[in-house]
Structure formats: C-alpha cells, structure tokens
Amino acid sequence: MPWFDKRVETYQKYHEDPRDYLDFILLKRDEIVKKSGEDKVPDYLSLQAIYSSQVDNLGLGGFDTTATSTDWSMVFLMNNPEVQENVYKELKEVCGNKPPTLSDRN
C-alpha cells in the first residue's frame, strides 16, 4: 500500500486544511480515534477499509460509468433510428470501410 501510505503522510502534514474528500474521511477517522480510542473505530473507517474503497473507486469507477454510458447510448440509438442512420453515415464518411481509430476523432 505504498501509494496509500504516502497519501496518509500527506494528509497528516495538512490535516488542519483538508483538500479533498479523502482528507475529510481521514479527519473524521482521527476525530473518532481521539474521542473513543483506536479500538472504537468502526470497521468502515479502518485504514484498510479506506484503502480498499479508494482502490475500488479508482479502478472500478471509470469502468462502471463507461459501461453505463455505452449501454444507454445503444438504447438511445435503438429507439431513434434516424439518429442511428446519421451516426452510421458519419462513420462511413470519416472511416470508410475500416474500423474507427482514435486518429479519426479529428
């Protein structure tokens, strides 16, 4: 967990002035530790749980958003054949008979 350890060190340096939501989570955790003790921290605020949630957010967040956007785009196109036809024509005009590539975006 070197990335997370470094992030916690940075938070500890600037914890009086939280800069993002992870700083706020760590600040809340510190408040509970100071008030109740390390053994009273809820499981969801353990450093391991916070680390795991950050990995999930970074690793899966973009995947889910992209998949959902793609799904709804397909539903929209299926329900709007005139738009689907315009997209098809533009793809044929830009790409010809080859599959689209990133360089075709311009």
Distance between the termini: 40 Å
- Sheet with the most strands? none
Shape assignment: elongated
Poorly predicted runs are none
Any key phrases for this structure?
4 helices; 106 residues; 0% strand; mainly alpha
Explain briefly what this protein structure is:
By secondary structure, the chain is mainly α. It has 4 helices and no strands.
Write the layout of secondary structure elements.
Blueprint: H1 2-14, H2 21-36, H3 47-79, H4 81-95
Structure notes:
By secondary structure, the chain is mainly alpha-helical. The chain is built from four helices and no strands. The longest helix has about 35 residues, at about 45-80.
